[in-house]
Amino acid sequence: MGSVDFLTQEKIWFDKPRFDEAERRFYERSDRSDRSDRSDGASQPAQDVGANTILQDIARARENIQKSLAGSISSAADQGEIICRIKSLEQENHSLHKVVEDLRAALSKLDCRVSVLEKPPVAVTTATTPAVHCNNGKTAQQKTSAPVKDEEEEEDDDIDLFGSSDDDADEEAEQLKEQRLKEYAEKKSKKPGIIAKSSILLDIKPWDDETDMVKLEECVRSVAVDGLLWGTSKLVPVGYGIKKLQIACVVEDDKVGTDILEEEITKFEDYIQSVDVAAFNKI
Question: Do 217 and 245 contact (CB within 8 A), yes or no?
């Protein structure tokens, strides 16, 4: 009895599992409703995206249709231009054919005229034959035609237009030819041939720094030889205040040589110590 009384006095929740089950169901229902709401919200943007893609496809189709129409219009214009050009070319071709036909007709006429002019003239005369007695007692004259040369034609044959049979003309032509050949040979013999020339650069050294270089150059230029032509000159320092004269000249190879130049220049031994060839070039 004591234990029963104790249980009656304690507050015990015997229906807790029922309430737990009801609470679980409640939360499951609320969770399902939330999920359905979310799915509805997600499907709405998807539907919007699909609608946008459909609109874009429609716009692209319209653009393609417009482009195709514009291309057909331009192609039609091009075809019209091509047809006009073809017609103009046909007209030009027709006119050219006409010109060619006219030229052919003119050439044929010219050929006929040339062939007629090239044919030699032939004089035809009729000669009468003596009367021939026929069986019926009547007389008849027989005519025969034969080519006979006219006197004028014979005279024309005797005349040579080119003078091929004229001995005097042949002799004059031969003399004129010989005279011209002789004049050409004389003229060719008088024509000067090619003269071989050389350009020489000389280095002329004095004895010391006290040598008068102006006087030295005057002495060098005083050398006059047939086929020698002096050129430009300059003073080139050597060392210790001494300068050498560098002078250029042009010589004819057949008349002047380097040994002749050295011999003539070294004659001025009071001013000149030595002569060297710095450069030698053929012209």
Answer: yes
Rounded Cα distance between 101 and 97, Å, is: 6
Cβ(127)–Cβ(144) under 8 Å? yes
Residue type, 254: D
Each residue's pLDDT tens digit in the chain (283 positions)?
Answer: 555 555 555 555 666 677 778 788 887 887 777 776 666 555 555 556 667 788 888 888 888 887 777 766 666 677 788 888 888 889 988 899 889 999 999 988 888 888 888 776 655 444 444 444 444 444 444 444 444 445 555 555 555 444 455 566 778 888 888 888 888 787 767 766 677 899 999 999 999 989 999 999 999 999 998 889 999 999 999 988 899 999 999 999 888 888 988 999 999 999 999 999 999 998 8
**Beta-carbon contacts of residue 252 (< 8 Å; ≥ 6 apart):** 195, 196, 197, 227, 228
Distinct helix (H) and strand (E) counts, the chain: 6, 6
Quote the CA–CA distance of 188 and 196 in Å, as a whole number: 19
Residue with tokens 């304690």: 10
Q: Are the beta carbons of 251 and 197 closer than 8 angstroms?
A: yes
* Phi then psi dihedrals of residue 125, to 5 deg: -120, 155
Place of tokens 């102006």: 214
Query: Can you give the pTM of this predicted structure?
Result: 0.34
The single residue listed with the structure tokens 């006059």 is: 224
Token pair belonging to 257: 């040589």
Pair type for strands 197-206 and 242-252: antiparallel
Identify the CA nearest to 206 among candidates 274, 276, 277, 279. 274
Beta bridge partner(s), residue 139: 133
